[in-house]
Design a protein that fits this description.
Helix 1 (45-53) packs across helix 2, helix 4 (109-128) packs parallel to helix 9 (189-196) and helix 9 crosses helix 10 (200-218). The protein has 220 residues and is mainly α. The chain is built from ten helices and no strands.
Amino acid sequence: MLMIGASPAALLPPATGFTCEARMLNLPAVSEAVAHHSGPLETSDEALMLAYAAGDVVAFEQLYARHRQRLYRFLIRELRDTGPVDEIYQDIWQRVIAARSGWQADATFASWLYRIARNRLADHWRAARHRPPAPHDADARLARVPDDDTPERRLAVEQRSTGLQRALAALPPEQREVVLLRLEQELTLEEIGAVTGAGRETVKSRLRYAMDKLRAAMTP
């Protein structure tokens, strides 16, 4: 069982079940993720969050199942090291739970979640006072992160090439962030703008420059 506030000895060990209290939240392991399939009858993230705010814990389970892998991988890309990921990952979900009663659907759940993640990362960098380079075994660490979602798995296979990893790491932080949010998290330009606080055209420009640099880096 993995509990918010605990100091996990390993990457998200197996856990089952949820409780309503934030301090006692038991999160299923990332490796236990259920594949997420979009469909016409699927309840939206926003409806699920409103249901959870009203006390429906099952709704939170569905939200967590949809977003846990993508969020976890986003943190790994940004942190470039699995060391602090678990604590930050759990803290983000704890903040989601703590804010549930006041949540309003004035933005998509995904943009709200990644804005929380971005703020938590900013706290981490301020405390660390610098952003370390990627560890020498970053590719191997990333490859060990389970990924059961088919689109993500395809992207992960493509991104495991050393050249692309180095090209991503070499991007300015604001460009790398936009690329990860667009390609891995599949956020719209408007959602990325909500996460980063940048206007749509700024997001579009950062994405264009980042993709140009990646293509140039990967061209023989």
